[in-house]
Design a protein that fits this description.
Blueprint: E1 2-8, E2 12-17, H1 22-31, E3 39-42, H2 48-59, E4 63-67, E5 70-74, H3 85-88, H4 96-105, E6 107-111, H5 124-132, E7 136-140, E8 143-147, E9 155-157, H6 163-173, E10 179-183, H7 189-201, E11 204-206, E12 212-216, E13 224-227, H8 232-245, E14 246-252, H9 260-269, E15 272-275, E16 279-283, E17 288-289, E18 293-294, H10 303-313, E19 316-323, H11 334-339, E20 343-347, E21 350-355, E22 363-365, H12 369-381, E23 384-389, H13 392-395, H14 401-406, E24 411-416
Parallel strand pairs: 2-14, 3-13, 9-10, 17-19, 18-19, 22-23
Antiparallel strand pairs: 1-23, 1-24, 3-5, 4-5, 6-8, 7-8, 10-12, 11-12, 14-16, 15-16, 19-21, 20-21
Helix pairs in contact: 1-2, 1-4, 1-7, 4-6, 5-6, 6-7, 8-10, 8-12, 10-12
Bound molecules: ligand EPZ.
The site of ligand EPZ has 26 residues, from helix 1, helix 5, helix 6, helix 10 and helix 12.
Length: 417
């Protein structure tokens, strides 16, 4: 088991370079099998979710080569075999193999995906989308068989603007016959990145980044080279850490517009920010104004930044609220923040934080990926030593977190116990 130890209360100064986006990478890797030729994806983060997807590719007899920051995927000898539960349950994004394999072979057999326990996380919208394209879905317990004699373009309206369903339907539809229209599509930047990748291979997708995506099916997809966008959630996490401890902290290699909602909330709180073309410089202040947030689909305040933001709310003067609207179980970090000294009450889907409170290091748990990021942020602010268990969750999504923070002056290490 890995644990993380942080000696907190130190200022952080210098530059943190942001890696490629996890939630784009985890869709791009499965998407690469839609061609029979080589796809090179660069700016790929070294995180365990990337490793887990490459392991699935190997199970499918796909040639995968990892070099520094890039993955070269060649599926010319691939076999469409059943993906075992041990692989699918390692991460949520294993479900992108459903759309990709269905799109390429018209058949996929795999198990319900894993991922953070932040809610029920059904995949009904993905399956309804596949059915609209002409597939039948059979399930036995956790095992799903989705197959179609032929995939035909369709008009699909999503009841919820789901990121996963939007991407999965795109993957299944790129090689379908005719035109597919996805209405109420999710608009997250990761979706645009995946659509660009598919278009580079020869797909005909328009409207990605808006709520109507149109896909004209093609019969062949070819070779391509593609770059993963910077991770807006990793960027936002470090900007929040900068607001807590930065003196000053530069968060570099980012697309600031992708975190506009966070930046305006930070400005509202009184955080001193310099926003450049591809960086944000953050200088911590002694006093912040209470600021409330409500999570929403992009371009709203990202649910994935809500947990780290509550740490900053503990340093604001007065009553701040965080309302979570996407996931029903995303306050698991709150009991641990309270152990560190925070004054927080959770009622239904809203956490009310009374601040400012002093945080003091203690033993806490990373219950999920972004809860883990919140624990790191809190540990860096807290006086004394914070020990975080279940660190594996954090390593699923934050590349070289210890090195990046050490380089700006943090005292942080991971130990095997
Ligand atoms: C993606 O999850 C991200 N994961 C999540 O990031 C992120 O929190 C989420 O989008 C929202 O931004 C990946 O990209 C791998 P959704 P996803 O489908 O696609 C409901 C992180 O920390 N829903 O947009 O699974 C669902 O229950 C992770 O990096 C259905 O009801 O999210 C939720 O309430 C955690 N039926 C809402 O929609 C469905 O078929 C939004 O989910 C699909 C979703």
């Amino acid at each position: 088991m890995k644990i993380m130890e942080i000696e907190g209360g130190r200022d952080l100064s210098g530059t943190i370079r942001i890696s490629g986006a996890k939630n784009a990478t985890v869709a791009l890797i499965p998407a690469a099998i839609l061609t029979d030729e080589e796809a090179t994806i660069c700016n790929v983060p070294e995180i365990t979710d990337t490793d887990a997807l490459c392991d699935i590719l190997k199970e499918l007899n796909v040639d995968v080569k990892r070099a520094s920051e890039s993955v070269v995927i060649n599926p010319k000898d691939m076999k469409n075999v059943e993906i075992a539960e041990a692989f699918s349950k390692k991460l949520r994004a294993s479900y992108y193999f459903m759309g990709a394999l269905l799109g390429k072979y018209h058949k996929v057999v795999m198990y319900f995906p894993g991922g953070c326990s932040i809610g029920a996380r059904p995949i009904d919208l993905h399956l309804k989308g596949f059915e609209a394209l002409g597939a039948t879905v059979k399930s036995e317990g956790n095992k799903y068989t989705v197959e179609a004699e032929e995939l035909k373009g369709a008009n699909i309206y999503l009841d919820i603007a789901s990121v996963g369903a939007t991407i999965n339907i795109m993957l299944a539809a790129v090689r379908a016959k005719g035109k597919t229209v996805i209405d109420n599509a999710a608009k997250e930047p990761e979706i645009v990145n995946v659509a660009t990748f598919l278009n580079n291979m020869g797909a005909k997708i328009t409207g990605a980044g808006t709520s109507t995506i149109k896909i004209e099916g093609v019969t062949h997809l070819g070779k391509c080279f593609h770059e993963v966008i910077p991770d807006r959630i990793e960027a936002g996490t470090y900007v929040i850490i900068g607001a807590l401890c930065g003196n000053p902290l530069k968060v570099d290699n980012i697309i600031p517009e992708h975190i506009d909602a966070l930046l305006s909330k930070l400005e509202e709180a009184g955080v001193q920010l310099e926003v450049g073309a591809d960086y944000v410089l953050v200088q911590k202040q002694d006093k912040y104004t209470a600021t409330s947030i409500k999570t929403a689909v992009y371009p709203g305040f990202a649910t994935d930044l809500q947990q780290p933001f509550t740490v900053l709310q503990t340093q604001m003067t007065g009553k701040s609220k965080t309302t979570e609207t996407i996931w029903e179980n995303r306050f698991m970090h709150i009991p641990y923040l309270k152990e560190l000294g925070a004054n927080i009450e959770v009622k239904n889907q809203t956490a009310t934080v009374l601040g400012p409170t002093k945080l003091t290091g203690c033993e806490v748990v990373a219950t999920d990926l972004r809860a883990g990021a919140a624990m790191v942020a809190a540990g860096l602010k807290a006086e004394g030593k914070t020990t975080i268990t279940n660190v594996e969750h954090i390593l699923r999504g934050y590349e070289s977190i210890v090195e990046k923070l050490t380089n700006v002056g943090a005292k942080i290490k991971i130990k095997e116990v």
